[in-house]
Design goal:
This protein is α+β, with helices and mostly antiparallel strands and 203 residues long. It has one domain. It is 30% helix and 31% strand. The chain contains 3 helices and 11 strands. The strands form 3 sheets. The protein has a 4-stranded antiparallel beta sheet, with no helix packed on it. The chain has a 4-stranded mixed beta sheet with strand order 4-3-10-11, with helices on one face. Helix 1 runs antiparallel to helix 3. The longest helix is centred in the middle third of the chain and has 30 residues. The radius of gyration is 21 Å and the shape is globular. Bound molecules: zinc ion (ZN) (2 copies). One zinc ion binds next to loops.
Length: 203
């Protein structure tokens, strides 16, 4: 998998960065050595004076996702249950399809238990979102629109703090396909702890 690298510059000064700063593997360390994927978005850190990945602690998007996951799980479970009775059982729902449904159910259950852990984290969280580079709290979200598909420059409405220029975005034409060997580990209060070497398929 690869993601496009979007250049971020300023209309007034030499500022340069890219939206790929949010890419990578980030996790919270929970009690009992459990890990939880860290939700993040692009933000402006006044301490780092640049765009950084910042924690996304918004409850709304989390709640909407939780509802979506539970209703999808119910649907898949229902489908599978139906396949074992009535007319479909006569036609013997294909083995492959049943296996697929079972895999989907396992997947959604895992997502739901992660979401529940995330809900607990949000509920017990004291500090506001932090910059995932310096762990500072002097951050604001930096919502940037989609970059144009061609190489043209789009002037965003985001004002470059302390400069007054506007941030611009453009597609660099490059794609990022990095297999991050390490996970950046954070406390449940969003403070950076360390990098851990963890194989790609596990936390
Ligand atoms: Zn500037
Ligand atoms: Zn920072």
């Amino acid at each position: 998998m690869s993601t496009p690298v979007v250049k971020v510059q300023c209309t007034q000064c030499e500022f340069r960065s890219s939206t790929s700063v949010v890419e990578g593997r980030f996790a919270y360390e929970l009690p009992g050595d459990a890990r939880l994927s860290l939700r993040r978005r692009l933000g402006w850190c006044f301490d780092c004076a640049t765009i950084r990945p910042v924690e996304d602690l918004t409850r709304d998007s989390f709640e909407a996702e939780f509802t979506r996951l539970t209703s999808t799980l119910a649907k898949v479970e229902n489908e599978l249950a139906k396949s074992k009775t009535g007319i479909r059982a006569l036609f013997r729902w294909s083995e492959t399809r049943t296996k697929q449904s079972e895999r989907n159910i396992a997947f959604f259950r895992k997502q739901i238990s992660e979401a529940a852990l995330y809900g607990n984290l949000l509920a017990s969280r004291h500090s506001p979102p932090r910059c995932l580079q310096c762990s500072g709290q002097n951050v604001i979200p930096c919502e940037l629109p989609q970059a144009p598909k061609d190489t043209s420059l789009l002037v965003t409405r985001f004002v470059h703090p302390d400069c007054g220029g506007y941030l611009t975005i453009s597609d660099s034409g490059m794609r990022l396909a990095v297999n991050y060997p390490t996970v950046r580990i954070y406390s449940s209060e969003g403070v950076y702890l360390r990098d851990d070497d963890v194989p790609r398929d596990q936390w």
